[in-house]
Structures are given as structure tokens and as C-alpha cells.
From TrEMBL, chain A:
Protein name (Swiss-Prot/TrEMBL): Translation initiation factor eIF2B subunit epsilon
Subcellular compartments: Cytoplasm, Cytosol
PANTHER family with a match to the protein in the record: TRANSLATION INITIATION FACTOR EIF-2B SUBUNIT EPSILON (PTHR45887:SF1)
Family under the similarity heading: Belongs to the eIF-2B gamma/epsilon subunits family.
Oligomeric and partner information: Component of the translation initiation factor 2B (eIF2B) complex which is a heterodecamer of two sets of five different subunits: alpha, beta, gamma, delta and epsilon. Subunits alpha, beta and delta comprise a regulatory subcomplex and subunits epsilon and gamma comprise a catalytic subcomplex. Within the complex, the hexameric regulatory complex resides at the center, with the two heterodimeric catalytic subcomplexes bound on opposite sides.
Origin superkingdom: Eukaryota
GO cellular component: cytosol; eukaryotic translation initiation factor 2B complex
Domain W2: 566-759
SUPFAM superfamilies referenced in this protein's UniProt entry, alphabetically: ARM repeat (SSF48371), Nucleotide-diphospho-sugar transferases (SSF53448)
Chief localization: cytoplasm
TrEMBL record, chain B:
Domain EIF2B subunit epsilon/gamma LbH: from-to ranges: 355-446
Domain of life: Eukaryota
Predominant place of localization: cytoplasm
Subunit text: Component of the translation initiation factor 2B (eIF2B) complex which is a heterodecamer of two sets of five different subunits: alpha, beta, gamma, delta and epsilon. Subunits alpha, beta and delta comprise a regulatory subcomplex and subunits epsilon and gamma comprise a catalytic subcomplex. Within the complex, the hexameric regulatory complex resides at the center, with the two heterodimeric catalytic subcomplexes bound on opposite sides.
Source species: Zingiber officinale
Protein name according to UniProt: Nucleotidyl transferase domain-containing protein
Family: Belongs to the eIF-2B gamma/epsilon subunits family.
GO MF term set: guanyl-nucleotide exchange factor activity; translation initiation factor activity
Amino acid sequence: MAQKKGQRGANSVAADDSEVVSRVPLQAVLLADSFNLRFRPITLERPKVLLPLVNVPMIEYTLAWLDSVGVEEVFVFCCSHSQQVKDYLKESEWTKPTSRFSVTTIESHDAISAGDALRVIYEKSVIHGDFVLISGDTISNMNLAQALREHKERKKKDPLAVMTMIIKHSKPSNLTHQTRFGTDKVLMAIDPQTKELIFYEDKVNPSQRFISIDKTLLADNTSVYLHNDKQDCYIDICSPEVLSLFMDNFDYQHLRRHFVKGLLVDDIMGYKIFTHEIHSSYAARIDNFRSYGTISKDILQRWTYPLVPNFQYFGNSSKVKLDREGIYKASDIVQSQSARIGAVTLIGSGTTIGNHSVITNSVVGHGCTLGNNVCINGCYIWDNVIIEDDCRLNHAIVCDGVHLRAGVVLEPGVILSFKVEVGRLITIPAYSKVSLRPQPSIQDSDEELEYADASSAVIESPSITSMVSSRNAESTPNFSVMENSNSSEVGIAGVGYIWSTYEGEHEEEWRHSIAPIPEAKLTELSHAYHEEPDVSYQFVSNTPVSGELQLDSESTGFDDGDGGDYVDSTDFDKEVEATFHRALTGVNQETVILEINSLRLSCNKSHADCVGALFFSVMKLGLEAPHSSNSELYQSIAKEINKWKDLLKHYLKSVDEEASNICSGTYILYGGLNDCNLQSKIEVILKFEEICSETATELSPLFCTILSYLYEKDILSEDAILSWESEKGAADESDKIFVKQSESFITWLKEASEEEDEDDE
Amino acid sequence: MTRMDFEVVVLAGGASSNLSPLVSQELPKALLPVANRPVLSYVLELLEGSNLKDLIVVVEGEDAAQLVGGWISGAYADRLHVEVAAVPEGVGTAGALRSISSYLTANDVLIVSGDLVTDVPPGAIAATHRRHGAVVTTLLCSSPVSGPSDSGTSGGKEKAKKPVRHNIIGLDPTRQYLLHMATGAEVEKDIRLQKRILQAVGQMEIRADLMDAHLYAFKRTVLQDILDQKDKFQSIRQDILPYLIRTQLSSEVSRNGLVSSESGSNKSAVQDDLRWLSQHREIAPSTFQDSQPLSLKSQRDDQRSHKCCVYIANESKYCARLNSIQAFSDINRDVIGEASHLSGYSFSAQNNIIHPSAELGSKTTVGPQCMLAEGSKLGDKCSVKRSVIGRHCRIGSNVKIVNSVVMNHVTIDDGCSIQGSVICSNVQLQERVVLKDCQVGAGYIVTSGSEHKSESLARK
């Protein structure tokens, strides 16, 4: 009886709102795809989340953390190499009945971004409550309980608080992000009281010395903290609304660049993002090779405890023993007496190390064979690698099954992908990436995918298969010379392609590479930000004069005029001209009109400006045609005008529409809507005048002729010409040259109109 | 307190145009009455309180300087040593300083705006300035909420109004250093911050609720150098201060950049950072040029490094500048109201000040937070609320004065009603005049029965 009562009591409590929330099991979405190409060429063959990080696949760390924070259901979203991820998970401890949570894989092959992935997950409708959004390459040991509690409490009070972002303090130095994670620093503005995120910028343009922040940020908050010293951990606690937001905004791709910024900037439905700062625990994401190296070291130095090599957290990790100075050794390694293992190094099981070899600051995987006199510093050597005598490796990543023959030198930043073989005495230059896979020829800049080939586990590229099989047949290193265009790149008896870096990327190579940043770059980096500040002075003094100025009856003496505007307008003219030239190459007129319109809107110009610029382009075209006499010139110009009159007229006509839409308020005072139209026609004449007097003086004798031609072709109307004349009436004599020139034409026009009037009567 | 080796310059302005019709040739801004004594007296007494008795008062215009000088010599002859300097009108605050800069000799110069009404001790700013060895220290105080806070008449309107954003100020996490400053009105859309400075501190607090009180402590040598070299600078607030803020920390930062080694790039970054912090926090070196004891790279030595500091006044402190008509009304109200300790008068049990020589008619009430100066007479059935009435005013019967300032020798005839207005000296209001939110310039006569609302009335 008592029991029953208790149960009923529990049920009634469960009906309470908060209880409902807590009864929903904590779910997590793990994105097992980074949606970028940073780990190429390795990711051509194996998904990033399965790459070993200190001899354990990255995804293990993420899953172990999710397990530790009490997540009950994990949805692993796989995209590239999904079969490999699925197979791996099937074999892993996490899917066994002993696992504390359930792992479900969701597969999609057409997702090209995190946004797509979340949309797929939304469609599956498996998320019922708050969930943790994490990428499979995130390492953390933080306790999520408090952040979760804060998130839930906020959500209860304010249903618009849909996301809590985990951030961590990092050093405020401008170099920290670059040196540690190879990423740009993140700029965040956070409300100190509520911890609401109000500004997020992860792509700070280094060439700009100023940061612009919308003033309206301060409209609601009297105080805002602007942080340059926070690191985004890429762990988010999301409410289910986040998924539907991705659904509604189908153009959201990137989690930060589109979703977070979009939410903050567009103020969509007032949704808010909050931050939770962690202080003592660890959280970081492997974004590129540099952060791979940094995080590996952090793991060896036990910042990620308990996720460290000698801790039996991962089911598949073998016993490793920790010595002094952060040296980890598997129990079954074979090490020569004369070999030396330096600090912060891990040697995997079954590895043999030859005489006089030195290994420092490195991770060596399982079953590797290192010869004599090998020197390894700052390298990540994966499983079953054979390194022969006298090799020198410096800050390189060497994947499974690589074979380095005697005397090979790897310069800093080298990546050797799976099963690459390097011939004797070859030096691989810095930042090279070598793979058995040929480099994909076309790089579509929009495509940010790991190589999405489901059957990529085995090397099957035909051009290489033969080589590989022949290599297998002859396993002795002194095999015959393979004079093959492919193998020659990595030396005699070598197999692999050296990937060339894409255009423009080479510059950036050092940023993401595992190698230390060259000193020159470091200096440059730190200098880039602080040029002589005095230079900026003039720039700043352009800012509008404050209201206080009048209060103190002061004024600044720096009036630089509207120099900025001037640049704008010439730019605009150039843009219009470029667009127009595209029209010449066959682009249809409609498209040109569309493009010019969008240009006009983006530059905040009027229709009249468009006509002016267009007219200028047309005239230029006519001028460019070869001509020897004035009459020929006239011919070619007339031809061009005739050809493009529709386009010009479109603008002169559409001014009418604009007039009715926009100008009505302002221009009605000046004599009606027609005036707008007139305005742009006058603009054409003025532009014409300008061309004649400044750019092409040879045109000036033809001014009147062309003017009448324009009139004839109905591009200019008589009232436009007449008002141009009257406008010029007050001008200087020098300005009147063209008016005088066309005097006879104008008189004729006047007479004609009078006659017309008479006719009307 | 011993001599602090500070010189004080009070910039008293001239006939500021945005205060018309209150100011005139006869009444420069510095002499505008706040609770029946010139506004300048508040600054002078504040400085006196910090034992800063050697002052230079700079006034725009010869005539105004004469008037101000005459008043000071009368009121403070035995208490302060004041020199009044006249500068041409329209030279700006920097121009005014430039014209007297050759007289300055002390290590540091305290520059105070003459229209400041505050109880923040200038000594505290001076001490902060010295402690940090800053080139400039600025007094920041909470932005006043504009408009009569408790006036019943326009209450609805005021509520809709957001507090004025006087300044946008960037501070370091310890709130000691000034990293950015912009005037609210100056910022059109975006707040533009210097990335270099943000990178140096890592975290910047941006505040919109602070106001630059126009009280600065400058290192004299730096101030003189800037005034000499940048001859186009016209204003302290517009030119000199932004220049100093912009150029601060420059040499430290660039020096850091040179110390980066390949090995353990991470570690070197940390060291750099620590070094930077240690420099930043370093306690006051005695002179400005010595402030680079850690400068390892000699080629940078010629470049100056400096700090701009702030002193943030406690929120309980009163701080306001008389730079608009609204501010004039607000300050008058506050000085006899919530900031009554500033007025220097002792209040009666009814929380008001009625001079013994003032005469009140029967059934006339003078509410709390009012002031009635000597020799003024009120007729019967008058009502005065939250207002200041000057000397020798003659006020008839049935007159209502609410939230207003009435200066000296004003005649107000029967049945007038005055709300939220400022009535200057020698004004005559004839019978049944109704004024609401008006300013009446000196000597003006408002004809009987007329009603005015939100107008500025002055003699042509």
C-alpha cells in the first residue's frame, strides 16, 4: 500500500514541468565528420575521427567524455567513410551491452556541412530534449553538470535561450591561438551579468586594425565584456529548437559562421546564446595538424586526465607504463641499450628501437620498427611503421604502414599518408604531403568535404595497385629502380604522390602545419598587429565630430572632405563598366540589368548614377573602335549607342518607377515625378560633357552631333536638354563650351517645341 | 596634505552658445548660478578641499575674463591664489591650454572643466595618476539620468526616453586603464576598437554608462609636447585624449614581438605576456622617460610607452556638467535636492532654505528642496516646489513655481504659473503668464496673459 502511494506520488511529481525535462534522457549528437579538408590527404583513406590521437582513435576520447558526463543516447552522424565509422563502432566497447549508453549511427552521404547533418537529424526526429552537440574530434574532461543545470534553468525562465556554448579562458596573447591551435582567435562579446553571448567573430581580418562592433549592442546593456582571450571549445548544449532553426534556415551550413553569427546578427525570433566558462578542466577541438600536435602533447602531459594513455579508460588500449618526465612505454617494447627516449614521449606496444636512436617529444604507435641511429623529434608515428637506419624525422606525421628507407630526412611539417614508401637518402621538403592517392585535380572551393568515398578503405586506385603489389612481392629494400613518374617523387623504390599545395594555400601552410611556426612568421605575426599607431591618426579624425564639440564651442580642424565618397563612386563606375563588358561577351541584357541593379543597391547609388556609368561605358566602347577621322568616330559611337539604347532606356525608364516608389516624397516638391526621370537624363548629358572635356578630347567636336543623335534615338528628351542648358546658364564661361556648341540644336529644339505647342492649340 | 606638485588649470569657457539665452555678455557660463552661487565656485571649492590652491582659470573672451576675475578676487581673495587668463573665443580646450602651457612647471597638471559640479575629491584622481605613473588620468562617473526624475508633469515622456549614452568607454579587466573612448553621439553605427589594444589586454570591458567628467590629470611634459607638436589639436576630449589612448602601449607590444623563439613557441608567448603584464602593472616610475626599465631592445627606446588611466567615481558620488539647459535645471534641482551637501547651505527642518530676509505672504507654501534667497518677497497663496528663487525677487500672489530656476531681481506678477523653466535676472513676468519648459533671457518682459510652452524667450 505504502509502495503504491509512493508510486503515485512520484507520478504526480513527474507531471511537474521540471521533472518532465529531467526524465528525457540526455542525448548527444556526435558529428563524425569535420566537413573540411584540413586533414587531407590522410582523410582520403580514413575518416578523421578514427585517426589515432596518442594511439587511440579520436572518437574514443569524445565518446569517453560523453559517457563520463552522463549522456544516455549518442547519435553518431557519419558522412564520409561512414562504413568505416560504423564498423569501428560495432567492434568497440560502446555498442556492447555493458556500455552505459546507446550509440546509434545516422548516415547520410549528401551532407556537406554540420548544418546539413543537423537537418538530417531533425528529420529523423530522434532528439526529444536538450542535447550535447559535439564533433568527434573534441577532447575534454570537463564536468558538464553545472553547465547543463544552468542551461535548463535559463531555458525554464526564458524559452529563447536555446544554446549554451562552452568557452575556456586562453592566454590573451595575440599569438596564442595561432601557436596552439593554428586557428584564428575568436572575438566574443559577453554580457558580464547574464553571460549572454552578444557578438562572435572567428574570422578577424588581420589586416584591419580596428574592430567594429555594432553600437546597438550597447543599447540594451550598459556594460559588455569584449573578449579576445577566450577559446571556443566547440561543445554546445542545445535545445531542440536549434535543430528546427537549422531546418528553417536551410542556408545555415557552418555551426559558428552561419548559425551562431546568424542568430546574433539577425536576431532571429530573439533566440539567445549563452556561454559557460570552464576554468580548471580541459576542452579543445582538433581542427588541423597543429592542434593535433598540441592536443597530443596535452594528453601526454596529462592535462586531460583521466583521458590519458596509462589509464584504463579505453577498452582497447593496452597497458602503458608511465615513467618520469612523461615517458610512456608499453611493456613489450624492444629497446636497444643505447637508444634514448626523451621527455614527453609515448612508445606503443610491439615497437622495436635500434641502437643509438633518439626519440623525443613524439608518439610512436604499435608494432613499429625503428632502425639504428634514427632521430625522431616532435613526430607522430602511427602503427606498423618501418623506419630504417639513419633517418631523421622532425615534426612530421607518419601514418600506418609507412616505410622509410635508410637515410630519409623528413623536414618539419611533412605528412606521410598510409603506406607511403620513401626511397633511400631522400629528403622530403618541409610541409610536403605524400599519399598513395593522387591528388584530386579540381578543387571546388565550395566543397568542404572529407573524401566521401564509401569504399575507400582499401587502396584500389589502378595506377598504384600494380606498384604496390610489385612492392609487396619484393620486400627487400634494394629492389630495382622504379622509374615511374609517381614513384620518382619519393625517390628510388618509393611509392606515393607528393601533393602539390593548391594555389594560394601555400602561404597558409605554416599556420596549420604540425611544425613549429618559423621564427620569421612569428615576428611578422606579432608585428602585423601593431604598426606605427600614429599613421592611423588621420583616419580616425575623420569620424564625425561629436555633439560635445558644440557644447565646448570647439571644432576639429580636420575636414578631409568627402574623399571616401569619391573613391566609392569611381569604384562603382568601374564595377558597372565591368558588368557591362560581360554583357559584350554574350551575357544577356536581362542579367546585366539584374547585376547592375544589385550593384546599385549594394553601393547605395541612384538610378541616375547607373545611367551615367553605363553611358560612360558605351561611349568608351565606341571610342575604342579604331577610327581615323571624326566621321568614323561618330559612326562607331552611333553604332554602339544604337546597339545599347535599350539598356540605357531601361534605366531611364525605370527611373520613372523609382520615382513613383522612392522619390515621390522628396521630389514632388520640385515639380512632380517626372523630375526624377529628367534628373537621370541630365546626368547622361553631364557625363557626356565630362567625357568630352576630360577623358576623350577628340570627342568634343562631335558633342553636338552625338547629342542630337541621342535625341533622335529617344534616349534624351528635349526637356532634359533644355533644362541642362538652363542649368548651365549660370555656370562659368569655360563650362559653357558645349552649351555654345549645341546652341543651334537647342534653338532648333526650342522652336520645334513652340511649333508643337502651337500645333496643340 | 603636503604640496602635491600639481598645477591646476580650470577651463571656465566663455559665453557658450548652447546655453543661450541663459548666458550673455554680462553673465558668462562660469558665473551661471547654481543654487544662487556661480557654478565655478563649486569647482574652486572642490579644489580648495583637496588643498589645491594655486589655480589658473582660463576664460574665453576678455570681457568674460574680467567678470570672472572680478568675482573670484571678491569671493576668494584670501583663500585661493588664482590667476585668470583670457584666451580668444573659439580656440578650443587645447587651444586654451596651448596659450598658457608655457607657464606650467609642475610635474603634473590637473585640468578641470569649470562647469563641473561634483563631490569627487580631485586629490583621489591625482593620487591615482601618480600611483600608475600615467600620462593621463581621467575621471569617469556614472552617466546622469537626464531630465527631472520625479517631475509629475513630464514623467510619461521621460520614461520613454532612454538614458543618454554619454560616452562609450573601454576599460581593462582591472578597471584601471582607459583603452577606448568615444562619445555616444560620435559613434554612428559601429564602435571601432583598436585591435592592437584589445590584443594586448585580452579582455576589454565596454561601458556605456560612464561619463567623462572632463577632469584630467596630465603629465606636464607629455601635454606640452603634444600641444607643441600637434598644432592642429583643438580639443582635449576630441584630439589629445584619443591620441594618447590610441598610441598607448605601442612600444611594449612591438617589443614583445621581437622576443619569440622557435622552440616552444607556446612558452615564449607566455613569457611575453607576463612581461607585458609586469610592465603594465608596474608601479609609478618617477618620471615619464624612465618608464621603460625593461626595455631590452634599445632601438625602441626612443618610442614612448605610456598609460592612460581612469579613476571611476563611486556611484554614490554626484557628478554632473553644466553643459546644456537641461543640465542647468537638473543640477539646480539636484544641488538643493539629492546632492544637497554640495550647496554648502544648511537646510531647515522642511528640507529647504529660506533666507531670513525673505518674506512670505499668507497661505504661501514653500515645499521641500526649495531655495529662497535673501530679500525676495512672495505674495499670498503662492506655491513653490523644487525650485530655486534668487535674490530680491518680487513675486505676487497666487503664483505657482514648480521645478524652475528663478534668478535675481525677477518680478513675477499675480497669477503666474511657471513649470520647468529658467527665468534669468531682471525678467518681468506680467499677470497670469503661464510658462512651461521655457527659458527667459535676462531683462525680457513677458506680457500679461501670454502662455508659452517649450520656448526660448530673449531680447533681440
